[in-house]
Amino acid sequence: GFLPFNPLLNKSLVSLQMVELYHHLFMRCPRLGVQPFLRALCDLQGVRFKNNLSVQFSSAYDLYIRLTESVRSRVLTSLDRTTPDWRMLNTCPPCQYEVEGEEPQPIRMMLAVDGNNSLKRFERRERKEDGTLLGPTREKPDVRIGGGDYFLQPSQVDLWDEPNWWKWVDWTPMEKADRIACTDRWSNLNEAKTARSFGSFDINGIFAGFCRHSFVLAFSDMMKTGEQYVCPISEPMGSLAVGYDIACGMVDKIARGPLSQLAKDERLQMMIGLLHGYAHNRLCQLTFLMLYIYGAGIEDLEVCERFFSHSNALASVTRYMSKFRRRQAISSYAYHRDNFETYANLSKFIHSNYRQALCIIGHSKETAKTLRDLGLLDTEKVIGYIDEERAYLESRNSTPEAELLTSNYYRALVKLSDCREKLRRARRTFRSYEKGELSVSGEESLYLSERQMVNEQELEAKLLVDVQSLEERLGLRADQRWCKGSEHWKKAEELVAMSKYQSSLDKLEGLIVARIFELSRMNVSGTGYKMRQHIGHAMQKRSTAICSALENYNEAAAKLTPPHKLLDWDDVLNYTYLSEFDFLRDTRSDVRDKVWAKPAVRQAMSELFKLLRAQEEICKLNIEIKRLVTYMKEEEEYLSSVARNIQRTNAALAYQIRRYRDERRRFNSTHHKRLDSIRKLPGFAPINVHYFHPGVGLRRQTVQGHVEEGEMELQADDNDNDDDDEEDDGEGDDQESEVDDRAEAALAVANDNVL
User: Bias regions of kind Acidic residues — which residues (predicted)?
Assistant: First the structure.
């Protein structure tokens, strides 16, 4: 029952229960490091804390983790679950435990991927003589890797890096496509920035993948780089829908990469989560926002942000750990969270989404009435407005070259005209000094007037060259130069006015984006008091800047022909999506007469798409309920059968299999109660009751071989002890059976009949 601090000199020991207590405390509160835990123990025992205790306890903790991982590995071996990707492909029952007879779904599984730079690691280096930190490394060699099957190795990730694509012989390179406008808004899409190392950090964070229920699929370290479109899945994600905050920028990379054909064959769908949808333009939203994607349901797909809000607590502990211990801590935390948090909340997730979807469907009559009042009687036609809007925005995505030349020519003519006017005044002033019409206080005044005249002459010559160059590109002769007040001059003047209008709109848009993200940041878990105060002061200053930008916008909008829509303070503050600005941005046609551009119609269309997604969510949840109840039944049966089969030959291993089974089984009774309560929700359709009964899993495992008669009686006895009683609340086996299992395991270990 004790673990040594040193494998050779066992002068000091620590109890296994104490190490296990720290492990569970650390999993629940990752901010709790070894040192504060030991200081608390020293305070309780009335002894002085010594620094070497931290090193000794860390060694014992490493041994504990190694023992638990070794036991878990042997348990998985006995369960025939040792393939490299078994955990990733079977971690989430509602997503991956398919059942016979399921209806085909438009999206079979939804993932979310994102990077997080909080879990970076500080690289230990020697100090140089000049005082800088980036001297030679002083890291101790450590051949241990850590992370188990949660982490991808750097070699696996580097294989798909763009510079290594040439190694794929069956792949044909493609040229880069034009960048979407909103990709410039994201710093993690700027490879020049993300490729820059953050000072003395050798690991700049993690890139993670999750299913929509928050189960961890895989991690990969961001080594000396940022988010470089690395997808942390070792198997192709063809038939999956993947949510990513910069999905619009990732599509081009997938299309040009070695997996492009596979992505096409499997209909890979990239999506943008609800939170990050704020900062994407309208054209990008129509393509990637989940509200407009068939089969997406009502999921926001922001599971990465929710996981990172909890895992960020690890940062203060893992920042200065070795590579091995850092990966060990992150993977242990992920395993604990998957089995004791995420799995425990599966039925809560399903119940919450089911209730929310039924609530949206409950307002379907109001939505239908609104559509009728607006004359939108054909649902298919309303859905087609999205394609019409997308086609319109695509046609307005770039400014024609003729307009750019016209605007530049007009500006050059204006500058030339202003310069000539200043030159005339300078010449008049200089001649007045020469004729004595103006009093000269000295040679200095005469020199200054002459110098100003010469400067204006030089500037006129430069501007004249620019004007002549633009005239050549426009095909104009010198005698065809535009004059102020001419028809060409007026049209160009309107173009420049609209350019100024767009510039003021860009500034207003940027300030609104900052306000939206600051408001969301105020409510993020883990934001400290000082940060909240800082954000609050920034928002006060931002409000003043927004008022000023709003005045500039309205001034520019009023000068247009015809005048564009003026905005007031309430309009700006009610803009929840950045795409609201996109219709104000058009400079070549007025979209206010379009049906889909009217505010009332757009609001009704949004409600219609929410209703459609809610109906899809009900279908998706029904299938997930069927999978979950089937998994709970078949998983318990399989694990209990394996434990019974090896009880006689290896009681210790059988005991560990039961413990492995109970990690998730303890929550099954709660799942059944929550799922049963769904049938009592208002609006639940009784026709869906059959989804709440177990089916037959396509991936179910069975015990191979026949059981002899002598063992049948033993299995019947064990059945009484292993099976749950519904009134038991799923707390485990009977107390008597638990004592027997422990006794048999202890005897097996005492007789060297170990795992």
Answer: 711-741
User: Could you give the dihedral angle defined by the CA atoms of residues 127, 132, 136 and 138, in that order, rounded to the nearest 10 degrees?
Assistant: 50
Q: 229: helix, coil or strand?
A: coil
pLDDT at 733 over 70: no
User: CA-to-CA distance for 212 and 299, rounded, in angstroms?
Assistant: 8
Helix (H, G, I), strand (E, B) or coil at 242: strand
Among candidate residues 610, 740, 753, 632, the one with its CA nearest the CA of residue 692: 632
pLDDT at 741: 64
Q: How far is residue 747's CA from residue 405's CA, in Å, rounded to a whole number? A: 90
* Rounded-to-integer distance, Cα 104 and Cα 171, Å: 32
The CA distance from 188 to 193, in Å, is 7
HEC readout, 555-590: HHHHCCCCCCCCCCHHHHHCCCCHHHHCCCCCCCCC
The residue type of 524 is V
Alpha-carbon gap, residue 264 to 247, rounded angstroms? 16
Q: What is the DSSP string of 248-262?
A: HHHHHHHHHSTTHHH
* Residue 542 near residue 511 (C-beta atoms within 8 A): yes
Q: How far apart are CA 372 and CA 312, in angstroms?
A: 49
pLDDT value of position 234: 37
Return d(Cα 523, Cα 303) in angstroms, integer. 16
Band of pLDDT at residue 533, cut at 50, 70 and 90: low
Task: For residue range 212-253, list pLDDT tens digits in order.
Answer: 999 999 988 876 555 554 444 433 333 678 888 888 878 877
Nearest in space to 621 (alpha carbons), one of 685, 699, 696, 698? 685
Contacts 24+ apart (CB under 8 A), 649-654: 650/748, 650/753, 650/755, 651/741, 651/744, 651/745, 651/747, 651/748, 651/753, 652/745, 652/748, 652/749, 652/753, 652/754, 652/755, 653/74, 653/75, 653/78, 653/755, 654/741, 654/744, 654/745
- Joined together, the tokens standing for residue 453 give 């005249």
Q: Which residue has the tokens 């899409």?
A: 189
pLDDT for the residue 388: 85
Q: Give dist(CA 198, CA 189) in Å, integer.
A: 16
pLDDT confidence of residue 2? 87
Distance CA 721, CA 727 (A): 14
Residue 712 has pLDDT above 50, yes or no: no
Look up residue 237 and give its two tokens: 């994600």
Q: Are 301 and 212 in contact (CB under 8 A)?
A: yes
Give the pTM. Answer: 0.74
**What whole-number distance in Å separates Cα of residue 703 and Cα of residue 639?**
9
Residue 108: how many other CB atoms lie within 10 Å: 18
Give the range with max mean pLDDT: 181-195, 309-323, 326-340, 486-500.
326-340
From CA 754, how far away is CA 747, in angstroms rounded? 10
Instruction: Sort 586 into a burial class: Cβ within 10 Å, 0-12 / 13-18 / 19+.
Output: middle
Give the count of beta carbons closer than 10 Å to the beta carbon of residue 162. 12
Mean pLDDT of the region 668-681: 95
What confidence tens digit (pLDDT) does each residue in 74-120 have?
A: 999 999 999 888 999 999 999 999 999 988 888 989 999 988 888 88
CB-based contact 119:299 (threshold 8 Å) = no
Q: DSSP secondary-structure letter at 175?
A: P
CA 311 to chain centre: 14
Contact 239, 357 (CB under 8 A): no
Q: Which residues contact 428 (CB under 8 A, 6 or more apart)?
A: none
